[in-house]
């Protein structure tokens, strides 16, 4: 990762952490940008006595939060939360998102849906006019072929994500399979999201179009941030 991208992620992540106030229940997204948010929250907890609880969106985030001394809670205890901070793989000009590079989009969707405010932290290279990144989809193995068939009928190409230090498919935190679906440029993200999420056996695809009204995008650059 270039120094520019690292600084851009850091600037966006840090800015988002400073939006959190005492008493907040905070959705903690997954990925490298949110890690900067969590590091800054950890600093604020230790140095400023900030009192918060985090709801992690993945196993990795839970481990990182524990190591950073961020107290954790669950959606069982707080079905409604104050603010969720999460990264994205692509953000279009209407605030439609593609998420799920980390295969965490199902829990990320649950946490974003539960939040009053959804803060998306990205480096500015993630901003695009039109979504065109690969769309991750989490599916139960029983429905894998059905999903692949449906993706084909929608003009896409589905590839089961392979593990890096494991042979075979990536098994998600929910014990399911992650499938990367390439549709090229996406003309209608809302309808594609609905089509994919409605396939029986799909837990969640990585297109997020329904949180626009509560979304603030913080796009980091090498020297600062832009709020969109
Ligand atoms: O959706 C995600 C994980 O499932 C991440 O939020 C997204 O991939 C962005 O990650 P990063 O901040 O590392 O670029």
UniProtKB/TrEMBL annotation:
Pathway the protein contributes to: Carbohydrate degradation; pentose phosphate pathway; D-ribose 5-phosphate from D-ribulose 5-phosphate (non-oxidative stage): step 1/1
EC numbers, comma separated: 5.3.1.6
Chain sites annotated for binding substrate: 30-33, 86-89, 99-102, 126
SUPFAM superfamilies attached to this UniProt entry: D-ribose-5-phosphate isomerase (RpiA), lid domain, NagB/RpiA/CoA transferase-like
Matching Gene3D superfamilies: 3.30.70.260, 3.40.50.1360
HAMAP family: Rib_5P_isom_A (MF_00170)
Protein name stated in the entry: Ribose-5-phosphate isomerase A
Organism encoding this protein: Methanomicrobium antiquum
Encoding gene, per UniProt annotation: rpiA
């Amino acid at each position: 990762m270039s120094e520019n991208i690292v600084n851009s992620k850091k600037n966006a992540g840090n800015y988002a952490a400073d939006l959190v106030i005492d008493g907040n229940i905070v959705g903690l997204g997954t990925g490298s940008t949110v890690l900067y948010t969590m590091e800054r929250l950890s600093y604020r907890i230790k140095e400023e006595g900030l009192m918060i609880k985090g709801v992690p969106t993945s196993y990795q985030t839970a481990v990182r939060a524990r190591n950073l001394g961020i107290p954790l809670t669950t959606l069982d205890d707080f079905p409604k939360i104050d603010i969720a901070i999460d990264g994205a793989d692509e953000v279009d000009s209407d605030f439609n998102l593609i998420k799920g590079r980390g295969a965490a989009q199902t829990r990320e969707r649950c946490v974003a849906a539960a939040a009053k405010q959804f803060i998306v932290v990205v480096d500015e290279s993630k901003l695009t006019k039109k979504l065109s990144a690969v769309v991750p989809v989490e599916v139960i193995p029983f429905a894998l072929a059905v999903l692949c068939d449906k993706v084909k009928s929608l003009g896409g190409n589905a590839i089961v994500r392979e593990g890096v230090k494991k042979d075979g498919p990536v098994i998600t935190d929910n014990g399911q399979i992650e499938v990367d679906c390439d549709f090229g440029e996406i003309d209608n993200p809302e309808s594609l999201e609905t089509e994919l999420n409605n396939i029986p056996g799909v837990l969640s695809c990585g297109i997020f179009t329904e949180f626009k009204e509560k979304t603030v995008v913080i796009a980091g650059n090498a020297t600062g941030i832009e709020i969109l």
